[in-house]
Amino acid sequence: MNIQDKQTYTYFHSLITLKQLRRIWKYVVLALSLAFFISIFIYRQSILGGIGHFLTEAESSAATPSNQTFFVLGGNGYERGKGAALLAQEFPSAQFICTGAGDTLNEMRAMGLNLTSAQLTRKCMIETGVDSLRVFELGEATSTYEESEEILTYCINHNLKEISVVSSDFHLRRMSMVFGEKFEEKGILVHFFGTETKDFKAESWWTFEAGLITTFNEYIKIVYYVFKY
Description:
By secondary structure, the protein is an alpha/beta fold. It has helices spanning about 20-40, 45-55, 75-90, 105-110, 115-130, 145-155, 170-185, 210-229; strands spanning about 70, 95-100, 135-140, 160-170, 190-195.
């Protein structure tokens, strides 16, 4: 009878090599990237809409009856003036102060009209039907930050504790950044109102050239203001 020796075998599994690990990691990264871009594509409308709506949001409590002074920021005097005129109907006893010393547009210069931003906004409001005795000018500032400083000084000098600031809707986020903290430190309550503009639509800004330009410009200004002020 043959006797077969019993043998014991030990199996060794080789560890993953660095080359194999890199190959696996490459596939993982590729899969994650693909999933990311697919998600972006699926939810692109919501994402782009959120980017637009972010600009139009500002923390602001509801205006009270004691809110009798509105400051209309310079720039885009026609649309901001029209929006302020609507607010003048909603607040019939309030006064409106138009700010901004920006240069007149070239198209207006060609027509012989040399108006500051404040003058242009006031003119628009009056022509829309607002009593001229309710609309004033404060036209030394040339930027949103300078306007905030000018308005703060005006509030302190006139002992104002509650005001409203009117600007384009896409301007609200940056406007609240500039006005919020320093006015709060002085005990001044600020309400923000945004007017509609044809060059920006929060839910579809990426579908037309003016919307793209307006949105990118505003985000660049936000970044600039974060580091500048």
